[in-house]
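Q: I'm writing a short methods note and want an example of a predicted protein-small molecule complex. Could you take the sequence and the SMILES for pyridoxal-5'-phosphate and return the bound structure as tokens? Please keep the output block clean; save any remarks for afterwards.
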Amino acid sequence: MKKDLLISLAQRHSTPFYAYDLSAVATRVNALRAELPVQARLFQSFKANPLPALAREVRVNGGRAEITSEGELRAAQEAGFTGDELLYGGPAKTEAEIAAALKAGVRWFSCESWVDASRVSFEALNARIEAQVLLRVNPAEAPSAGLAMTGVESQFGFDEEMLLTTARPDLGGIALRGVHVYFGSQIASREALVENTRRALGAAERVSTKLGFQCDVVNAGGGFPWPYGNDGTTPDLAGMRADLEELWQACPFNGQAELWFESGRHLVASSGTLVARVMDVKQSRTKCYIVLDTGIHHLGGMSGLGRLPRGGMTFYNLTRGVTGDAMTCDVVGPLCSPLDSLARGILLHETRPDDLIAIPNVGAYGLTASLIGFLSHSAPVEIAYRGSEIVSVLRLHTGHGTD
Ligand SMILES: Cc1ncc(COP(=O)(O)O)c(C=O)c1O
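A: Understood, no commentary inside the block.
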């Protein structure tokens, strides 16, 4: 952690702010690509963080973009991605967003059901464009995943059994080109990631054979893990390339199809640090509260409603380092809700009002996964830097007043 840089940013921009180290993004993209088969393509999942400066870094290091909304599309364009470098996915795509995506040059869509595919078909026919479609499949085999999205009942994708037993509708304007499987997030080990890829390839083979289309793309998803908001150990993926190459060589699509992967947190989480100011240190009866100027509206842990690994966060005191005795405390934010807590019952060393606190590994599912509208506080500024150079400074607009 670049302590001096963060302190000087706090003096220039005031707290709270997110600081993103672009060189960390480049390192992670290149390290992950080095563990995937040589020909594989890697897509950045914008849902983890759509900040254009980060995405630009992914792009110049050979990545593409997986997007799910018009806002993510605009961010991808801002980052320099062209339409053919984008995969548009997600459930409940509206006619307007499909039309806008087609107009912007997007050709690849991941469809979650025949209703979803029929909307893509309708808009593609309207635009006289052929959309290239991946069917998102929920394989019958359950995966090994932190947050399982397949092998169980799910709102995502086509159940594999359904595709294998029912006829496919005749839809114009689209070409079925491949299969997309997303087993879940935070897959715990290299072995599980490889096993999931094997299962994705199996599902792609069964589905494309039954539906009678040539499978040109297998998007095997990802789920590559990274710690969230703490300095926990990062997974060792060394050796994954050899295992995946072996699978790919043995697979009937080898030589004919492209193998795609997508990743959010693994690429961008390590780049981000949230820096906040201690506004108050309060004792209430038996409990000590450290009150920050940031909370679940800036670091909501996906929903801000219980997903946050409370107690699993790391708080570095930039002002004071590690001094004094450790005390048990709750770290809370400025919102008028007892739910606004980043950690409960954790041990922190001496902490005083006006100290600067840094939370590491929050470059993914940080600001845009938070309750940023709640209580209408300003969004924290987002600062992207490389070395000592500030590359971009951006603040999301919040609140209902006019500027
Ligand atoms: C379909 C899909 N792809 C990619 C991702 C990104 O996951 P992660 O950030 O864990 O890589 C998600 C996350 O929910 C997802 O649902």
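A: Remarks, as requested: The chain has two domains: 22-268, 270-394. The radius of gyration is 22 Å.
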